[in-house]
Each structure stands twice: as structure tokens, then as C-alpha cells.
Design a protein that fits this description.
Layout (H helix, E strand, L loop, with lengths): L1 H8 L4 E4 L2 H9 L4 E4 L9 H10 L2 H20 L2 E8 H4 L7 E4 L11 H13 L6 H9 L4 E4 L18 E7 L5 E5 L15 H25 L2 E2 H10 L9 H16 L5 H12 L6 H12 L11 E7 L2 E6 L8 E4 L4 E4 L12 E2 L3 H5 L13 H4 L3 H11 L3 E10 L5 E7 L1 H7 L5 E6 L7 E7 L3 H15 L2
Length: about 475
């Protein structure tokens, strides 16, 4: 009893674990306390915790760590390079006139969200396979059209991500490993096909991009030659972009690279002027270049056994999907996509929003985008929050990644390398989910973009992947 009395006569030092409201109650009572943000392993999921323990067996975990080191080496060694442009049906592997590529994991027509259906119908009209939306809807539902994820054809697509046979695409090559990736040209913001808009205004723009803009860019690239995108992305991080939702610097640098070559082409002057004005007025031009740059950076890690790094994150407005390097390209893990929390354009609210949509989070998978929000504090004016939030998002991502970028660095964090290589095991163990900044599409087709914000992958994607990984490697 005397020892207990001595305890209560001493100054108490309070450490609060877990439930943060207890800590705030103590602070409200002017009691000094320290809060520890503790969560049970795997969020208390016993099966997941058991799978994690199996994989933490020293003999297995050593193989995982070695595999992840090799994957990180390949990611950091990548040399994404813009090598030219082409027509999707002529350059993308596996494309046919009856193939439509889309963002996100595999999905059937009946499960597609509104904006993706709008983009698909718009694509069919664009290709002349349907004369109006009614005919396009019937064709899409008929089973005659093959729907495939962009990722299954070495491509990526922002938002709905629809790619059809005659669309122009950027061609990016990873010079370190020889693989290529493809992406359509960016239409701009607002009422555009990738957000599900599909009226005559959209078709007129897309025809102009194919018939006027594409020949100018292609001819300019043939004169300019290859462009090192790794160096360019490293530069844009120093200039206030994060290369996903903020692309002012990236588009400006690309404009500087291409303009002299475009002016040197023998195309009509007015055509060149119109093309340059379009690029100059569309800050998101660079998004459709940074995305395939990241895609071809990540693909070479797929053949590494025991690798627990997330090689793909994407979403189709219905499901959020991931692929794990050590489980191969054909194995998807999907769960219901979440709603984006952010800022809405005037006249729209969260009631108008579709679920999370697009392949553009390949940027976060590579370690830029939302992972580098600290490099782009002005992004909060577009997606919401404060500058301190942008800093904290980047700092937190180091907890779930296996290494840091060597080329991609964050000035506001004393030029620390970007958090690179999302480790599925760390996501489960810490309960920290990757941060993604993104646009918001209207839930109905034909409207377009209604805002932008922040979102996370659903935890269940990682729980599923962990089980498959443990079944393959721990047993």
C-alpha cells in the first residue's frame, strides 16, 4: 500500500494510445499528455493479421525484402522517354476496331458507372459504329464489343479512360527495360469525353484533335526527337507541380520543348498556331504524358517473385483495383471504389458525384502525384485542405513505401526523395492507405467534371491481395 501511495504522490505522465478523443479530453482538463496514434495490426482483422505473421517469418520475409529491393532498383533505374505519337489501333497491342479500352480493373457494361458508359457510347459514335446514343447503348450491351482495362494493353487512361481504335496516343518507352506505354491526348477540363460527356461539342473537339492537333504533334516530334521525361518530371516537382492534378509546369516545359520543332514543320501556319494555342490553354496536357511515363516505369517489376510492392492502382467508378508485382499482371484485387472528398464547382455538391474513377493514380503508385503534394502546396486550392495537409500527406506516405526517389525530390522536405514503392504488407500493418488526389466526375453521363479532391483505396483490396500472397508464398 505504501508503494501505491507513493505513486499517487508523484507527478503523473499520461500516454494515451489509440482513441484520440481521450487525449482531447485530457487536454481540455489542462492535463499534460502524449497521444500515440496506435491501431491494432490489420485493423483487428484476425485472418489478415495471421497472414501477415506468416509472411513475417524470417525465412520468407528475407526473400520479400530482397525482392522489394530489386523492384525499387528497377523503379529508380527506369528511363521513361517520349518517343513519338501514333494511332491507337496501329500501335497499342491487341487493339481491334471492336475493342474499347477503359480505366480501372476489368468490368462489364452492366456494372459500369454513368460517366464510363457515356464515354463508351461517345467512343462508339466517334468511331462511326453507332449514329446516336440509343444505338451506341444497344451495341455496347450486345456483347459484340470487347471491353478491356487499359492496363492490360500497356496503356493508361485518365478518368473513364476510354481508348478507341482511331484515337491518337502518346508513345512512351522505358529505355532502361525496353517496354512501352500509351495514352490518349488530353482534351482539357470540364465537358469532355473522359468525364462522360458525349455530345456534338465533344465529338467536334475529338475530331479536331485527331485531324489537326495530332498531325502537328507527330510532325513536331519527328523533328524534335526523343524527350527525357524522367528529367522533366524531376524539374516539375521543383516548380510546384506534383504531375497528377497540377501540371502547369509540366505543360509549360513540354510546350517549350515542342514549339521550335512544330514551327519548323511544313504544315500550314494556321494549323500550327491552333495546335500551339490548344496546348497553351490546357494545363492538363502533361497529365497524359506523366501517366504513361509512370506506367512504363512500374511494369518491369511484375516478374519478381516474392515482391509485395503494389505495381498498379486504378479505378473504374465502380471498383478500385490493385495488382501486386509478385502475383502477376493477370491477378486483380478489387473492392468498391470510395467517393472523393474535395471541392466542387459552383452548382454541384457531393450528391452529384460518381465514385472514384481513372487510371491516373498510376502516378501515386510510382511515388509522385498525391505522394508529392508537399512539392505542390498550391494544389490545395484545387482539391481542398491546407498547405500543412499537403506536407503531412507526403510525410505519411514514407510509412508505407520501401524507399525514396533519387530523381524525384521534394523541396519543402529539404529535397528528400519522394516516397516510392507502396508495400502491401506495410499498408496492412500500419492501417495507412495510399493518398490520391483526383478529379470528380458527375455520376450521370453527359455532364463532365464537377470537382476535385482526395481519396484512398478501399482497405479490402489489400486484405484480398495479402491472402493471395500468403497462399502463394507462405504455404
Amino acid at each position: 500500500m505504501s508503494k501505491l501511495n507513493e505513486l499517487f504522490n508523484k507527478e503523473l505522465h499520461i500516454v494515451n494510445f489509440g482513441i484520440e478523443s481521450f487525449y482531447h479530453d485530457l487536454k481540455g482538463q489542462k492535463e499534460p499528455a502524449v497521444h500515440v496514434d496506435w491501431k491494432p495490426v490489420a485493423g483487428g482483422n484476425k485472418e489478415a493479421a495471421g497472414n501477415l505473421r506468416k509472411l513475417k517469418n524470417p525465412a520468407i520475409y528475407e526473400k520479400i525484402q530482397e525482392a522489394n529491393k530489386e523492384a525499387l532498383r528497377r523503379i529508380l533505374a527506369a528511363q521513361p522517354t517520349l518517343v513519338g505519337l501514333g494511332i491507337a489501333g496501329e500501335v497499342i497491342p491487341g487493339m481491334t476496331k471492336d475493342t474499347i479500352l477503359h480505366a480501372g480493373p476489368p468490368i462489364t457494361w452492366d456494372r459500369m458507372c454513368g460517366p464510363m458508359k457515356g464515354a463508351v457510347m461517345g467512343g462508339l459514335i466517334l468511331e462511326g459504329q453507332a449514329k446516336d446514343l440509343k444505338e451506341a447503348e444497344a451495341l455496347a450491351a450486345s456483347g459484340k464489343i470487347k471491353f478491356d482495362p487499359c492496363h492490360m494493353h500497356n496503356a493508361v487512361g485518365p478518368m473513364a479512360g476510354v481508348v478507341t481504335y482511331s484515337m491518337p496516343v502518346w508513345i512512351i518507352e522505358n529505355k532502361a527495360f525496353g517496354n512501352r506505354a500509351y495514352c490518349t491526348l488530353n482534351e482539357g477540363l470540364g465537358k469532355v469525353l473522359r468525364f462522360g460527356a458525349c455530345d456534338q461539342e465533344v465529338f467536334t473537339r475529338l475530331h479536331w484533335m485527331r485531324d489537326v492537333l495530332y498531325p502537328v504533334l507527330k510532325a513536331g516530334m519527328e523533328i524534335k526527337g526523343e524527350i527525357d521525361l524522367k528529367t522533366m518530371i524531376a524539374q516539375v516537382l521543383q516548380m510546384g507541380d506534383e504531375a497528377h492534378n497540377r501540371n502547369k509546369a509540366g505543360t509549360s516545359l513540354m510546350f517549350r520543348e515542342l514549339t521550335p520543332a512544330i514551327l519548323a514543320t511544313d504544315l500550314p501556319n494556321q494549323q500550327k498556331i491552333d495546335a500551339l494555342n490548344f496546348i497553351n490553354n490546357n494545363d492538363h496536357t502533361f497529365l497524359n504524358i506523366s501517366m504513361p511515363a509512370c506506367k512504363c516505369t512500374m511494369d518491369p517489376i511484375f516478374d519478381i517473385p516474392y515482391c509485395s510492392i503494389v505495381a498498379t492502382m486504378n479505378r473504374n467508378g465502380t471498383d478500385f483495383g490493385i495488382r501486386i508485382a509478385g502475383l502477376g499482371k493477370d491477378q486483380w484485387f478489387a473492392a468498391t471504389a470510395e467517393y472523393v472528398q474535395g471541392l466542387y464547382f459552383p452548382g454541384f455538391t457531393e450528391q452529384d458525384a460518381a465514385r472514384d474513377l481513372g487510371d491516373s493514380c498510376i502516378t501515386e503508385t510510382t511515388g509522385i502525384g498525391g505522394f508529392c503534394m508537399a512539392a505542390a502546396p498550391a494544389i490545395v486550392q484545387f482539391v481542398g485542405g491546407q498547405v500543412s495537409d499537403a506536407l503531412n500527406y507526403s510525410k505519411t506516405m514514407y510509412e508505407i513505401t520501401v524507399g525514396e526517389g533519387q530523381a524525384y525530390k521534394i523541396p519543402a522536405l529539404d529535397f528528400r526523395g519522394s516516397p516510392t514503392g507502396i508495400d502491401m504488407l506495410k499498408v496492412i500493418e500500419t492501417g495507412i492507405r495510399p493518398i490520391i488526389n483526383t478529379g470528380i466526375a458527375h455520376k450521370d453521363y453527359g455532364v463532365g467534371q464537377v470537382g476535385a479532391g482526395i481519396v484512398n483505396p478501399p482497405e479490402d483490396c489489400f486484405i484480398q491481395a495479402l491472402k493471395a500472397f500468403a497462399d502463394k508464398y507462405a504455404d
